[in-house]
Specification:
elongated, mainly alpha, two-stranded antiparallel sheet
């Protein structure tokens, strides 16, 4: 197996971490009798020799030895080595042809491995036949033979995937592979194999799918589950048996339905109907798969998902903790979209006070999943439980930030929020961590009685970055949102020459509505401030309206193409607020809409304010409302485009159409 391994100058070769002199040890360890040693070596090779698809000179030098290892039946765990070879030869990130050529040189090895006694090896070798055996006719014959001979369900699944891969790799010969898939999607084959074939057909030949695809898939899923229940070994009283009861696994079932959902893509209604079958299955594992696939659908695609969400809520009454926890996790990520499940969430919150908080070892408590999901859905029935937690000695650290989703409904909690804020020392190193969520919550409920406590946090506020400076920034934002009172004016004026100048100027405007002190500061921040000050300055100039007319030349320059899209949009919206002239504004908004989807919510709100003057850009809102895909699920969208942001964008676009 290792003939010639010591003749390779490994020290002169490289991998991800540097010199490859440790590679011979990994290769030898792959043949070890020790399970841990083999697993450690394989992990090391994946991380060093093929990290994120990269191929190094040491990777190429390993291939002959890896091929020799997988050819020896006495070597344990060869399936993982075959998977590494497939990754090297077929999934090279930089498209290096040498990697494919090196693995293809051992193509005949994979032909033998397709009939290996070890099913894990046969499973890994199925795709390798398509990637590395020469000629479409021999490959198709091999796949056909293996489908007829194979009895292991997981290997059959891999063979159907290999047929779909063959159809994509050899389009001129795809019909024969599609015929095989269609044949295996119908009786008399087992329900699992039929489901697998349907999923691959949906990927490569959707025209060959049955008209009643969803009912057929649901029926097959239930037949498979019933068959699986009859053949599944009963869990023992051993540790492994208890773990299986607590967290059962059905990886094959998960892959079957995930493939079908992936193939259905933007057919949201069909995917919703399929989820309906999954989430009402008698088998809790099928329902659990449905929960996670529902998360993918709701996070990635727009539409009326209320029926799916109600079925997610129905899982909260499951006897299986792992199924309930999965549903809670998904619902907590849906925010307002979870409203159809609010009754089920409320029932769980009422019946299980022990789930109101979650604490990790040596960590501060956080809101428990069910209560967090109920709060994020905007349901005021969460308020009594939140009040109970606020009255306790250790309220969850994230409670204040989550209250923003309740808005005015959280007003009864304002006195307790103020009391907690009053107990935070401004100079504490943890002040920002604990005060920030409380300030956010008080601003969200509009509690003007909190202004004195907010001002207390600004006493002796420093101007440079640091823990107390973070508190100062959060406190100024709260004052601006609440509407600063006359007693805040001296404190805010003192902050006009700090890094918080733009925010302080905005809060000062809300207190006295006098541009005398505010306008010069905002102009300075717009033209001379740091990059992170320009956008806030433009936004606050917009609030001044016509009183900011002296800033028009600077704002026109800020709206120029050389600035980032978000800065240009803020400047353009300010131009409209101040001058009400659409001519310099509309081109900026049109360009930014296409350039950066993250600007679209701000643009839509500006278009609504413009009313009929925004008619030339009406088509942007119309196209957005017609698009089925969420920006959060698209490459390059950034992490800030989640479900709440996307739903807010859709709402804003509807307002645009009503206004123009």
């Amino acid at each position: 197996m290792f003939t010639g391994i010591d003749e390779v100058d490994w020290a002169s070769l490289r991998h991800r971490y540097g010199s490859a002199e440790d590679v011979p040890g990994w290769l030898r360890a792959l043949a070890s009798a020790d399970t841990v040693e083999r697993a450690t070596a394989l992990d090391g090779m994946h991380g060093a020799l093929h990290h994120q698809g990269r191929v190094y000179d040491s990777t190429l030098a390993c291939v002959p030895f890896l091929l020799s290892l997988v050819a020896r039946e006495e070597v344990p765990d060869r399936g993982g080595i075959v998977e590494l070879l497939v990754g090297i030869g077929a999934h090279s990130a930089d498209g290096d042809p040498r990697a494919r050529e090196a693995v293809c040189a051992g193509g005949e090895v994979f032909v033998r491995l397709a009939g290996d006694p070890d099913p894990a090896v046969r499973r890994a070798a199925a795709g390798a036949l398509v990637h590395f055996v020469t000629g479409p006719a021999p490959v198709l014959d091999l796949l056909r033979q293996r489908l007829r001979a194979e009895r292991d369900d997981r290997v059959l699944l891999a063979l159907t995937e290999a047929l779909a891969l063959f159809a994509r790799r050899y389009p001129a010969h795809a019909d024969a592979a599609v015929d095989l898939l269609a044949e295996h999607s119908a009786p008399p084959y087992a329900p699992g194999l039929r489901l697998a074939a349907l999923g691959q057909l949906a990927l490569v030949a959707p025209a060959r799918l049955p008209a009643d695809l969803v009912p057929t898939a649901v029926r097959l899923l239930r037949e498979r589950s019933a068959q699986r229940a009859r053949t599944c070994e009963p869990a023992t009283d051993s540790l492994v048996g208890r773990i299986r009861r607590l967290r059962p696994s059905d990886e094959e079932g998960s892959r079957l339905l995930r493939t079908l959902h992936t193939a259905l893509g933007d057919r949201v209604a069909a995917r919703g109907a399929l989820l309906g079958g999954q989430l009402t299955s008698p088998d809790p594992m099928d329902r659990c798969h449905g929960v996670w696939l529902a998360a993918a659908l709701l996070r990635g695609w727009r539409g009326d998902h209320s029926g799916t969400v109600r079925l997610l809520g129905a899982q909260l009454g499951a006897q299986e903790d792992w199924l309930r926890d999965a549903a809670v996790t998904v619902l907590s990520g849906l925010f307002a979209l979870a409203a159809p499940a609010a009754d089920d969430l409320h029932a769980l919150v009422r019946s299980r006070p022990d789930l109101w908080t979650h604490r990790v070892e040596r960590g501060s408590p956080t809101l428990g999943g069910p209560l967090k999901a109920l709060v994020r859905s905007g349901d005021p029935r969460a308020v009594p439980a939140l009040a109970h937690l606020l009255a306790g000695p250790a309220a969850p650290v994230d409670l204040g930030g989550e209250l923003t989703h309740l808005g005015a409904a959280a007003a009864p909690l304002a006195p307790m929020l103020r009391q907690r804020l009053a107990r935070i020392p401004p100079a504490s190193t943890t002040a920002a961590r604990f005060a920030g969520p409380l300030l956010t919550a008080l601003a969200a409920v509009g509690d003007r009685d909190a202004v004195p406590e907010v001002l207390r946090l600004l006493s002796d506020a420093p101007g440079g970055p640091g823990p107390r400076d973070a508190v100062a920034g959060q406190a100024i934002a709260a004052l601006e949102a609440l509407g600063a009172t006359a007693q805040a004016i001296p404190v805010l004026r003192a902050l006009l020459h700090t890094r918080h100048a733009a925010a302080a100027a905005g809060a000062l405007w809300s207190a006295q509505r006098d541009p005398t002190d505010v306008l010069p500061v905002l102009l300075r921040e717009l033209t001379q401030g740091a990059p992170d000050s320009r956008l806030p300055a433009a936004s606050r100039l917009a609030r001044l309206g016509p009183a900011a007319r002296p800033a028009l030349p600077a704002l026109r320059r800020a709206a120029a193409r050389s600035r980032p899209a978000r800065e240009r949009v803020a400047a353009a919206c300010a131009l409209w607020r101040i001058d009400a002239d659409p001519e310099p504004v509309l081109p900026v908004l049109r360009d930014a809409w296409q350039q950066d989807p993250r600007t679209r919510r701000r643009i839509a709100r500006c278009l609504t304010e413009m009313g009929p003057a925004a008619t030339p850009l009406r088509h942007l809102a119309e196209a957005e409302l017609a698009a089925p895909r969420r920006h959060s699920a698209q490459p390059g969208a950034g992490s800030g485009q989640g479900i709440p942001e996307d739903e807010d964008l859709l709402s804003a676009c509807r307002e645009v159409l009503a206004a123009v």
